[in-house]
Design a protein that fits this description.
This protein has 346 residues and is of the alpha/beta class. It has a single domain, classed as Alpha/Beta hydrolase fold, catalytic domain (Rossmann fold), CATH 3.40.50.1820. The chain is built from 9 helices and 11 strands. The chain has an 11-stranded mixed β-sheet with strand order 1-2-3-4-5-7-6-8-9-10-11, with helices on both faces. Strand 10, helix 8 and strand 11 form a beta-alpha-beta unit. Helix 3 crosses helix 4. GO terms for molecular function: hydrolase activity.
Amino acid sequence: MGGMRLRGTACAAAGLLLAVATACTGGDGGSTPETGPATTRAAEAPSPRSSSPSPAPVDPVSLPALMRREHTGSGLRLGDVLDRTSAYTRYAVTYEANGLTVSGIMNIPVGKGPFPALVLAHGYIDPDVYFSGQGMPREQDRLARSGYVVLHTDYRNHARSDDDPDNDVNLRLGYTEDVIGAALALRDSGRPEIDGDRIGLFGRSMGGGVVYNTLVVAPGLFDAAVAYAPVSALPQENIDHFQRPDGDPIVTEIEEKHGTPEEDPEFWRGVSPLTYADRLTEPLLIQHGTADDTCPLAWSREAARTFQKAGKDVELRAVAGEGHTFGPRWAAEMDVTEAFFERHLR
């Protein structure tokens, strides 16, 4: 699918196989030994004896650059036990993603595995105040109680993860690498509790943008995905909506390095997943409240329309009266989310 190829000790039998451009202010704000690297590469370089022409150069800060990169994810390590419930045990974890150590939390259900796994991609929370596992606590708890291994990634520059000083000016594409690395680390973990052949992706707000980008960069890596109240799939819209009105100085740095959409439209096309809608191979569910005043519903309508026009299995559920974080309808929409994952991961 999409030219992807999985490699690694735990990936030999697997199928073929970034992050959003800007901050969304609507994050929840609440509350083994390494067996060798697993990798995925979207485009193989020609062999030295091949007469095929070399691939055309691409901007290193772009989704095509991530598509060509050989991504690695390995070394999933369980650290301290953070909590024990009747349904699951919660651990501090780390894993390696493209040479960086990324922290997170993992909930492992009680009982006999292997269990299907879900990678959770949280919304924007200022890294200066973020703590490990913050952003989707309700989802972490409920999904583990429903029999899923839940790996919530902290992303680079968050909590105990390694620093990437260029990540903001490079439109936070590194977050997509961290999510891809999480899936590869799950596949490569060798842990008996984890079914590495059944992995889903669930992101909210900024993490919903990470979902979009991950699906077009690494088609076939996940089995299904849910985007919950996602940001725009057009990076310039996120900048104009969230950062420019606040006078965020990173906007000037971004435009000095990459140009404005008017100065370099090709660059901005290259960082939007909608440009590569034809690469999507997995079913995608988008859930968005009609009263969301943080991320407008129109953004999800545009994304769903573009993916559907490309013939992809994408459903948009507009949830009447719900805001950005969902309230009265949260449990009902989680029923829908679980039913969706049940169809595709069980």
